[in-house]
Fold each of these.
Amino acid sequence: MIAEHEVRNLLRTGGYIADESIATAVFLALRMEKPILIEGPPGVGKTGLAKTLSEVMDFPLVRLQCYEGIDEGKALYDWEYGKQLLYTQLLRTQLDSYLSESADLRAAVERLSAEESLFFSQNFLVQRPILRSFLSEKRSLLLIDEIDRSGDEFEALLLECLSDFQVSIPELGVIEARTRPLVILTSNGTRMISDALRRRCLFLYIGYPEFEREVAIVCARYPELCDTLAHQMVDFLRKVRELNLRKSPSISETLDWAQVLTILHATRLTPEVVANTVGTIAKHQADMKQVSELATRELRVA
Amino acid sequence: MERIITRFVKALRERGIRVSPGESIDAVHALALGGVEGRASVRALLRLTLVKNVNDIPAFEEVFDSFFSGREHFPPGLDQADFLGALIHIVEGEQLKSDLHKHHKEEGPTLLVDEEVTAEDLENLLGMEESDEESEGADIMVQLDGHRGKMEAPAPSDYYMKSPPTVAFHQGMNKSKVEPFTPEELADMQEVVGRMLVRIRKDVQRMKEEESRGRLHVIRTIQKNYRHGMVPFLLSLRRKRKEKPRLVVFCDVSYSVSHATRFMLLLLHTLQSRVMDVRSFVFNRELAEITDMLRNMPVNCLIETIDKGEIVNLDDNSDFGNVFRTFKEKHLESMRGKPAIIIMGDARNNYNEANEWALEEIREKAGYMLWLTPEERDTWQRGDCLMELYGTYCDRVEVVRNVDELSRVVEDLFLTILDLHDTRVWKRRPRKPEGEEPYDYRTYYTKGSGATPAFDPNVRRQW
């Protein structure tokens, strides 16, 4: 089994710069086989962590995007009614001959019900993401994305899956996970997740990164960007975050911006550069104005 | 190790962080796994396993720092300077008391004619008694903590603030700007609203279910399934009700009730989109509709705009009569359905015309009328307060003093609205015929206990 600092190095090879708590969380989740619940503002790399992990650990990624009204038919399993119907149609002749041997109707029904399990078997079961990841041969990574979009009922549905790694199907009984997947749940905090679910998870909060880490992230992704510019833009973005914006730029915006600046071959930040590229960091009209103003104020002097 | 974790968890619980036994077992288990080295890692590990809420993280950091700092004889979360201060307080208790007394005499309300002891004085006295008792140092500290802030200069009584001379002298001072919500306040309120929404969710669900039920609308179903060769794959039903419950809210934004107003605005903001159709107005002397602004603006900005006096002039005195007349003239026609009306204000009309006839006309168009006032009942007859007069036109008058009470009242109202979202029920409601003797509002207010007026309980339960 790997240790905590190895986790961090592993993530770094995947281009994900983790801090202490992220590395510890992944390490614990791997060792304790507990799900991680990640909360934080949009764009700080919650889903990115899961993707990188699946890449570097070589776990196949099974993703379940939550939305309002998601239910077990979409998340756990479903019966393939069409296939069931088709089979009964095709097997009609066999069934006829099979049932014709019985003396009366009662006997025929008994005979048929003895074979009932044939029609409620794994054959006709559609595996939805959670069951699929439980039954996969290789250890997989189950990403339950934006859990806060789903309803309370769905949360309750997850409780059994996440604490015991099993799925109860009334017709088949309890199906245990073949391999316990690494489970990552993400939430933007638009709705409070119930305490029952929190209790079953390791709780990880990812906020905006510290200066050093953000620079490291930019440099890791866009090594061609010159070092001073990376420092300058991260410094500027930190000031932007202090403004009272409707949508503060997070890491994903930082990376977008870095990409744009690389394409433009910019060497240093000027108010003009910011004005031209403001659309990548500010996502509202009012925000754009504020950011441009900040740029003229802060960067003119330099 | 288990013992250390147990003690640490205890310290966390003392700070108000909820840690379940299962979580502390997790923590011990996680530590036993090994592979974690260094203070930062252990901190991350404990935080991951023990803390399950973002808001608890700062408290955790604090407890962690003080608990594992070696200075364990100090209880966690206590600053040394604070501790010293508290000790000084204990030693100099006597002096403190006399100081306080002097202080009080200087700053007491000079306009009060009688030298009677006010409620605040009694409370202060009570506080001094308590700290005098023979108790252990820590106990006294706790007591002092409890009374810090309360022992400051006595706040002038409500009556003093409202009495005409004070109002006249303080005309300029009352305008001091109330800061917009702090993020914590906002979060708190969001939480109250959130909890409320969870509780009423079931009812909303039921409402929605009822909406999607109904008899088959044959013609529309056939039209809808034309492309399927008239095989009715898609059904169209005669819905029982297509609209969300309607609500019209008036908020007094003058200084005296602005706190309650703020909460109300936030509440409306949240409810607006989700479950009901709200039209909101703010008023002081003039009336202004803010429905669209509520929809398009963050609450904080809106409150700032209101505080700047850009929507209604805050320097005027509130004039309820004028407001009701304006509403009657400008908006009553455009009020659709039979909305429930909530009025928030202290009904202090500053000796302007009452115009209760306008209120009566508004009442006729409304399904329900609720008045929320921050003032206690015994001040309703004093000064320029017209609560008694306006109260007669309302279905219910509630005294709300804080956020909790307000949220309870609104939830109550909301449930009744949901129950009766079907306007047909309103028609079936046993209404009193016009000619009947007007009920005596004095007994209405004195009978029963506020929330459930004594006459005809059946009608009241419905509305």
Amino acid sequence: MEYFIQQLINGITLGGVYALVALGYTMVYGIIQLINFAHGEFFAAGGYMGVILISWLAAQGVPPTICLVLSLGLTMGYCALLATAVEQVAYRPLRQSSRLSVLLSALGMSIFLQNGLMLTQGVYDRAYPTEITRGGLHFGMVTFSYMQILIVAVTAILLVGLNALVFRTRIGKAMRATAQDKTMSALVGINSGRIISLTFAVGAGLAAAAGIMVGLYYGSVRYDMGFVPGIKAFAAAVLGGIGNITGAMLGGFIIGMVEIMAAGYISSEYKDVFAFIILIAVLYFMPTGIMGENVDDTRV
Amino acid sequence: MTTLGSRRHWTGFAIGLVWFFFILWPLMGIKPGGLEFIPALLVWARIAAAALFIFVLWLLRQQGALGFLERPAARLGAAVSGAARVVPRTAWIAAVLAASMTLPLFAERYALDVAINVLVYVCLGLGLNVVVGMAGLLDLGYIAFYGVGAYTYALLSVHFGLSFWLCLPLAAGLAAVAGCIIGYPTLRMRGDYLAIVTLGFGEIVRIVLNNWMSLTNGPNGILGIKPPTLPWLQDGLWGVLELRALGGLYYVILGLAAFTVLAVYRLNHSRIGRAFEAVREDETAAQLMGVNTFAIKLLAYAMGAIFGGLAGAFFAARMRFVSPESFTFMESAMVLAMVVLGGMGSIPGVILGALALIALPEVFRGFELYRMLVFGGVMAVMMIINPRGLWPAKRVGQRSEERGHG
């Protein structure tokens, strides 16, 4: 029983990470129907920027709490800017091209960024300063580490914030309008180019937050850390119904939970396979996902 | 043939490029600890400089400033291609064939090694070309079939001692079966979904190879695979000659590559090839014209997989060792980059792509590390500047989706 509760806690933690990454996929897909292959790289970039900032700030003698908050904020901002740059270089020139072209361009960008990271930051794992978040709460055999609490808390804040942004603000309204109909929204005075950039930026910011927290949680980052979590997060987005923000959050938690439970009770070697199997099964049996209702047949 | 039409777009793109490299600086320029600042910056600076150089060159060309170089070059090119057209195509093919047949006679070991590599990738590229180029299905897990072929021969050779020539069709057959297994549930999906699901399948195959210890020996791989053999008359008795030397292996892969080229060429001009293209251009219209689109797509998958399986079996026989590490996503991406760079659906284009991506980095040995980086960049830029590739296929129409996107 204790083992199960522990796995439950681990599952929620991992699910939060996947949910944050999945949101980027789903938002971008919702607005320009593109699978952003480079999205996993923003996750990795967040991890690296986080370790750079945390080490630097800690060396300047900044207190740990402020150091964490500051690095998180700066990293998210940085990755948001990076995403707009990527969008401008690799996606915007292809607005009128075939989907295959955009997909290949995105893939190329992903390979470029990943190898750029490898060349400049090295092939090996880079250690995170973990002393900031060591320790945890113990309830009998069950441990709720501070890092897990941090991840859950930050995820919750970001998810609530995103919901507010998308459903309560004018910008959010513009985003939803652009996703529904680009031409019409342009006619009523929405700058769709800017809204698309903004969507990329928000998605990448969330992925960056996930990256920095994964780095802290596992204690290290690697140049190719964005690849597998990227696919799993995509599976989460599809499971929730691609284009649907609430669905992506839900899908992220389900995928995280399934992975942890499968690793704990079935086989830890094959834990990566389950997300793929879910992805394939969902696409085959219910391509609209759990919450996606407004998917027309051109998307699937 | 540029996707970017107006000057306004180009200025936007140029500003974006500068911004992109500027924003990459902190991420790729600073290492945690700060001490390794300069070397990292140097790498970044080289990337930026190369990109800037190419871009400036391109801009100058757009403005016509390179006319003094280009006009004579174009005249020379026209003269050469005019002369080339006088000689019949069969003569050219014969010349290429003769040159490749005699290569082991004068090439040294290293050059031969590179040539074998190029030919393996020609097989892979042409196989993927059937799926991506001809049928228009983006497959990101193609390397899985290469892996299936390699492991088929490796296991059969090590455990049962079967000959390479017997295993070759078996490897191809198993790869085709794997293609059908992967294709059956995925082919109902369109474009981008298919891409990510095939990517997932590719990863599943690798993970299984990595973890099925009792069969594949996991990450340690399989050792002691026998090289291809030929029956050989020795002292009046029929013996077996093992093709261990590079020269022999070269002829084996040359034969396989020639077979692949011929098969893909014939396929391209057959009813099935036309059906592939019909599906690529407009699936609904193809269905309306009586093409069984699902069967055709499955067939494209299986056919592509066959060539991957053949190349895989050869790979195992040549290395005499296989491990899951050779079948990562990056390999898939590299093969895809060849197809994209050379021109989707074009046989000479894919061969050119394989040459460019395998042989060129060998020439620039010092830049070995930058290979994948350049692939990625080239892939993205190619889609913007010239999505049809270096040597475009003759029959490529406006894709049906081309109007609808964005």
